[in-house]
Amino acid sequence: MKLPRLLFLLFGLLLISHALYAQDDNLSILKRKLITEIEKVAGNLDGVMGVAIKDLTTGEEISINSQMTFPTGSSIKIPVLIELHKQAAEGKFKLTDQRRIERKDKVSGSGVIQHFSDLASQLSLNDLAVLMIVLSDNTATNMLIDQVGMANVNSTLDQLGLKQIRLRRKMIDQAASARGDENTATPREAMLLMERFYRGEVISKQLSEDVLKILKLRKNSPLPRLLPANVEIANKPGAIEGVACDWGIVFVPNRPYAIAVMTNYNGDGADNAIANVSKLAYDYCVKLARSTKYGARVPLELLQNKPR
């Protein structure tokens, strides 16, 4: 190859490389603006916030205090749901098996089973699971923890490589919480758990899909609060005194993402703060979903499954 031709090719590659880096710079500015806005929300919270977000198309992550440990509140009910379906798949019981509601099982807080008559009702394990996730029923949760075993929940989390997510107590056990036996997680591991659901990697593809089906049932929670009503979301919020969090997958067309927002030492307003972070993440991903690699906005169907 003659030298002039080689120089011409090298010059062309340089121009292409410069254009690509220029677009990377544009996206970096957009991402920095998102992080700045999330940090403002976290800074204005009367407490501490951790955030982990992952673009499930590109693998890009946004992390703010994401390796810090927070109480989970009722978001820990997701691992209980996983273990229930895992053991059912192993043949230890059937999800249609019935459990009688007894006075000894009832606890206060969220849910409706606490108001059922003693020994007058039976519910299937699957029905208990739905109540645990949709209404965050604490009695249903404790019955399911008794069914699957707390140690087994943590063992399965270990197998999934999620050793920072720990189930240490049943619901409404403030004495256990006071002595340090708290249910905890980091935002990043919570986000990774949701990503694995999306990719069908929680035990098996079928189990992942079965659990996601329940998590997609609409519930009163911060993550979807400021999002359009037609946006599909799989999530589980959690709240105890001084703590609020929400873990989920938001199925933005062409740009789904996993998100976990966790807070503690809260006064008022934690749910609103989580909702605001969720809206910022949603607007960011929708903007990318509708844009070409040069930032021009085009009809979504022309960009389906074309990550940038």
What share of the residues lie within helices? Answer: 40-55%
Looking at CATH, the homologous superfamily is DD-peptidase/beta-lactamase superfamily
Spatial gap, N to C terminus: 34 Å
SS-based structural class? alpha+beta
Low-confidence stretches: 10-22
Number of structurally distinct domains: 1
CATH topology: Beta-lactamase
**Whole-angstrom Rg:** 22 Å
User: What is the averaged pLDDT score?
Assistant: 90
- Strand order in the largest sheet: 2-1-9-8-7
Which properties best describe this structure?
five-stranded antiparallel β-sheet; 9 helices; two-stranded antiparallel sheet; 308 residues; alpha+beta
Structure in words:
By secondary structure, this protein is of the alpha+beta class. It has one domain (34-302): Beta-lactamase. Helices cover 44% and strands 15% of the residues. The protein contains 9 helices and 9 strands. Strands 2-1-9-8-7 form a 5-stranded antiparallel beta sheet. Strands 3-6 form a two-stranded antiparallel ribbon. Strands 4-5 form a two-stranded antiparallel ribbon. The chain starts with a helix and ends in a 19-residue tail after the last helix.
